[in-house]
Amino acid sequence: MHDLSNTRKERTRPVEVGDYVLMGNYVSVLPGVKIGSHCVIGANSVVTRDIPGHSIAAGAPAKVIGEVDDRDLAK
Length: 75
Known about the structure:
By secondary structure, this protein is mainly beta. Helices cover 5% and strands 31% of the residues. It is elongated, with a radius of gyration of 16 Å.
């Protein structure tokens, strides 16, 4: 007989996403990551670490590649 009890350690943690965050298609965000407000995350990115607010990030793993200017938010 096989033991059907759950002996695996849970590896989940909450993900925090700030206000007005735009994520492209097929973005993966790993457990415990925080994405600040007013960010843009490029399509197919894998977010493995925290992204500060007002950032543009892309890639696998995602890296900050630019900033969102407050003047852009007014448009």
